[in-house]
Amino acid sequence: MTRRLYWQDAYLKEFDSEAERAEANRIVLRETAFYPTGGGAPHDTGVLTLNGTEVKVVDVIKEGEDIIHVLDSAVEISSGDRVHGAIDWNRRYSIMRYHTALHLLDAIVERGHPNCRITGGQIFVDRARMDLDFPELNRELLQKIIDETNGAALEGHAVFSKEITRAEALKMPNLARTEPGRLMIMGMDTVRLIEIEGLDVQMDGGVHVANTREIGRILFNAYENKGSHRKRVDVVLEN
């Protein structure tokens, strides 16, 4: 089982660990700051230094309780060997900003439009999208929602994580906003939450900024109307 340092400190840029096992260009560490693909968010990239050699991390995969670092070349390493890791911070911080931005946008939609249902979302390094079952949504209303979201971001709400039991999670309405998320709770003993203070609480295993001011300004990028119950919103952030 890999200890997830990114849950303890999403701002951790470098770390030291020990190899658990390796095969060709895939290595498992005892702890890592590298976030794997999952939850609609992309993986980290960066470098690992082992036995005096620096290799690039080109993919990060979660398999069971292990985090697998996929390298750009094969390595020879033994269990217990020391490894130094450094993530690509610019990539990570962009993902953190977009992830929190989607949570905040979700919260504003839920608060003002309780009949809307979030059906999906995807975070990229340079943009993010949200899919909604929201028949009355149009471009004008969307811009009003984004303006309200930007206002909430500027208020500077703290963002933090906590863990609760599955029984506690099942008593909390709207903790998971999508059907896959609701089904996921049923298979968990411990549920990790991300809270935007005073605005939102959601089940989430990703990385986020510590304050909504770090999001910056959200800009409407694209809007697709795929039918009354299928709307897709694409947003970007100002640097």
Would you kindly provide a written description of the structure presented here, covering whatever features stand out?
This protein is of the alpha+beta class and 239 residues long. It has 2 domains: 3-87, Elongation Factor Tu (Ef-tu), domain 3, CATH 2.40.30; 92-237, 2-Layer Sandwich (Threonyl-tRNA Synthetase, Chain A, domain 2). The chain is 24% helix and 38% strand. The chain has 5 helices and 15 strands. The protein has helices at 5-8, 89-112, 139-154, 166-170, 179-186, and strands at residues 3-4, 14-23, 26-29, 31-32, 46-50, 53-63, 66-71, 82-87, 117-123, 128-133, 159-165, 190-196, 200-203, 218-225, 231-237. The protein has a 6-stranded antiparallel β-barrel with strand order 2-3-7-6-5-8. A 4-stranded antiparallel β-sheet has the order 9-10-15-14, covered by helices on one side. A 3-stranded antiparallel β-sheet has the order 11-12-13. α2 packs across α3 (139-154). It is elongated, with a radius of gyration of 19 Å. The mean pLDDT is 94.
